[in-house]
Model the fold of this input.
Amino acid sequence: MQNSARINAKITSVGHYVPDFVIDNKFFEGILDTSDEWITERTGIKERRWLTADKPTSFMAEKAIKQVLENRGIGPEDIDMIIVGTVTPDMIYPSTACLLQEKIGAKNIWGFDILAACSGFIFALINGVQFIQSGNFKKVLVVGADKMSAILNIQDRNSAILFGDAAGAVLLEPEEDKNEGILDWIMNIDGSGAKNLFQLGGGSLHPASHQTVDDRMHFVYQEGRTVFKDAVKGMADVSYDILEENNLKGKDVAWLVPHQANHRIITATAERMGLSMDKVMVNINKYGNTTAGTIPTCISEYWQAGKVNKGDYLVLSSFGAGYTWGSVLLKWSY
Ligand code: ACO
Done:
């Protein structure tokens, strides 16, 4: 979707939070028929972080937002809007955006949650861009946060080993130069993939009951092999296409920021774009798949390490439950 708006949006601050509690692969050897070797080889994950049972997703998101505000040198009173990508809201309702507004002490703002699983952050980001481009919003917080440990079926070796908890956030602000900030995006949904990756229980189709609990319907379920194949194609295609649409080559890109679901999916995407792995942000080894948290957490960590510089072209890309997938091209502005 080429940008025809008068105003661009740019990221002007980043922040993230990961819990202290580390779960290594050995932990699963004690409870499941699996091994550190299998998990490392097939996924690239060595360890992940889990938040303690008494704390919700908004706990991590609040910490990430506070870092964003501090890095930008502004307070909660300066924020116009909060958009949160998550599949693990504190409650079904009210939205986590509402809870965060109250927690951080922002006033007179608008906000809502976006449900797009692993694409939650980029879907939220592009929503935020629209509000900046409307000219009516000047400072939009975009959050990707998930406490996946809350919805893990610990008895299922196909999925339990994959996920971790994390939150990341960015601030969007207006940019008048059309060659700066968020330059282009491609977003897709396809519900024919819904049967391959879902959490069945707790919605209006299967409201919570003894039966849904007994049948373990309140946890993540995925057909790993099918999702893997679809994710490799979806993420690689959309990452390649955004370069093509903008007459760019792999050599022009400073960083690919891929959703961190499986190291093999990340490698396939980089290959398709003609990128060497030293230009790919990776933290799946440390945190596993943190769903909406992966992309903003990567950007924040790499930025804090001084590895993201003004003028760098970044491609963010993701694939997740829905199916939902997409890519974003941006030029880093600070
Ligand atoms: N330890 C040991 N063996 C395992 C494990 C495990 N943890 N998990 C699966 N296996 C076994 C399977 O049972 C199977 O055994 P079988 O051949 O006897 O049936 C064998 O390993 C191969 O299984 P596959 O599913 O083909 O393994 P694969 O190499 O595909 O890896 C994985 C599985 C890691 C789940 C991979 O398919 C994957 O990463 N899928 C995509 C995940 C993804 O992108 N999700 C989207 C985002 S998530 C979201 O939106 C919420």
Remarks:
- Residues 34, 38-39, 42-43, 117-118, 157-158, 161, 197, 224-225, 227-228, 231, 261-262, 265, 289, 291, 320-321 surround acetyl coenzyme *A (CB under 6 Å).
- The chain has two domains: 8-179, 182-331.
